[in-house]
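Encode chain A's predicted structure.
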Amino acid sequence: SDKINGIHPLGAKFGEVLDIDARATNNLVGKSVQEIFTESNIIIAALIRENSLIIPNPSTLLSVEDRLILM
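Encoded structure for chain A:
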């Protein structure tokens, strides 16, 4: 099922920051950060994996247990 942990507005001109579980968007699991950005212009600002904060690089692959901070 979908799991959105939070939506945080950045202001009318800047959009939102979303906090979601990767399993809520199965089409992201197993893809690299670069693939996701190229396909959708979504920026993965950070992810939480096994209680650790990770600032991903373009080759970081997403796992089903990741919690994603998207812009």
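The longest strand covers residues 4-11.
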